User: Which sequence fits this backbone?
């Protein structure tokens, strides 16, 4: 696709935009320093249209003014920006966290960041309703209250494995708002509703909460069983499939036995992914004190991949005792360990895990929580 080079335009708005850009450029050249920081651009009406971060703020900001083509991201942002504001932070990690916080708060319309680490990820959403179900989704979207398992690599494999789990336990996989009819509601609906055209109940793959074929509590029990399986607490679906596989082998139905073996493998692989995820999330629990590039050192209290507190790194024995007390308070409460993540914490979990994956040496700046060694010696 050919791209048109940036040429001077003489429309009044373009002239104004160029004058504003020249003013911002002069400020950046005169004042900005190459330190970690966050910046935001406002439109003339005060709307925050873009939030960004960099470990070298000056270099990053200057790059906006070198955009060659009108379609370049920098040029598009500058055309709308009337005001540029930046702040320095102690470290690159701090800039990432601050950028995420501001993107979530302001939802700037020119930002496409924030979701970038989730591009190749998939989550399993627990969708509650009349009859709960699992859904594979690419991101938490606007759901601020949901419960998610993940992130996982490979949405297709996760979908296939989830289908096996749904089939094995008779869980529904239709639209969340599909009407459910439990038998205890029969006086409300008269005769039991007929099957709605979905054959999963007819072929024994779904308990049929839509056609009054299962009580609400029975369906719920199956759903809980599925969650327990995913969390490694029971083996019911695999045991049932193994029994069917043995029976098929006994009858010399080797093709069916092979199909059942494949189903078992998909389920076991899904559960293995859950176990790896639990391990990964649990291993992201420590106090992290990266060396500050700007200002004082800061300690991040990270539990299960989420930053629970940001504290000035203690410098004296007394400060450390007080710090340890606060950290102990954060690590003390029992937490669920099954691997679910509230939707509002997903982006932060992705940020923290991707940070330590990209820069494993940063683990050297962490310390497992214990009151006596909660922070790096300072
Ligand atoms: S049988 Fe009914 S509840 Fe089950 S998946 Fe089909 S439509 Fe949904």
Assistant:
């Amino acid at each position: 696709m050919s791209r048109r080079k940036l040429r001077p335009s003489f429309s009044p708005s373009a002239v104004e935009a160029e004058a504003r850009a020249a003013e911002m450029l002069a400020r950046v050249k005169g004042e900005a320093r190459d330190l970690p920081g966050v910046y935001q651009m406002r439109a003339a009406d005060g709307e925050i249209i873009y939030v960004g971060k960099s470990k070298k703020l000056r270099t990053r900001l200057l790059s906006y003014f070198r955009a060659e083509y009108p379609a370049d991201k920098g040029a598009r942002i500058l055309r709308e920006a009337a005001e540029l504001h930046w702040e320095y932070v102690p470290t690159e990690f701090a800039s990432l966290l601050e950028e995420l916080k501001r993107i979530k708060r302001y939802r700037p319309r020119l930002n496409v960041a924030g979701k970038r680490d989730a591009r190749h990820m998939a989550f399993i959403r627990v969708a509650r309703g009349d009859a709960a179900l699992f859904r594979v989704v690419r991101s938490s979207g606007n759901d601020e209250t949901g419960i998610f398992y993940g992130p996982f690599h490979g949405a297709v494999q996760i979908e296939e494995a989830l289908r096996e789990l749904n089939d094995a336990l008779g869980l529904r996989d239709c639209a969340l708002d599909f009407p459910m009819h439990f038998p205890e509601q029969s006086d409300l609906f008269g005769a039991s509703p007929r099957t709605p055209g979905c054959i999963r109940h007819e072929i024994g793959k779904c308990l049929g909460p839509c056609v009054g074929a299962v009580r609400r509590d029975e369906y719920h029990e199956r759903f809980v069983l599925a969650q327990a399986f995913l969390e490694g607490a029971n083996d019911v679906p695999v045991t049932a499939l193994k029994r069917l596989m043995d029976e098929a082998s006994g009858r010399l139905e080797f093709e069916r036995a092979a199909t059942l073996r494949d189903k078992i493998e998909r389920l076991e692989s899904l559960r293995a992914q859950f176990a790896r995820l639990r391990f990964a999330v649990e291993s992201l629990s420590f106090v992290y004190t990266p060396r500050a590039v700007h200002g004082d050192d800061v300690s991040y209290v990270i539990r299960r991949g989420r930053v629970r507190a940001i504290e000035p790194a203690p410098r004296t024995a007394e400060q450390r005792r007080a710090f340890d007390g606060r950290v102990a308070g954060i690590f003390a409460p029992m937490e669920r360990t099954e691997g679910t993540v509230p939707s509002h914490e997903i982006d932060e979990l992705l940020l923290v895990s991707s940070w330590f994956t990209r820069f494993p040496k940063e683990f050297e700046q962490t310390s497992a929580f214990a009151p006596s060694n909660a922070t790096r010696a300072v």
Q: What stands out?
A: Residues 113-117, 371-378 have pLDDT under 50 and may be disordered.
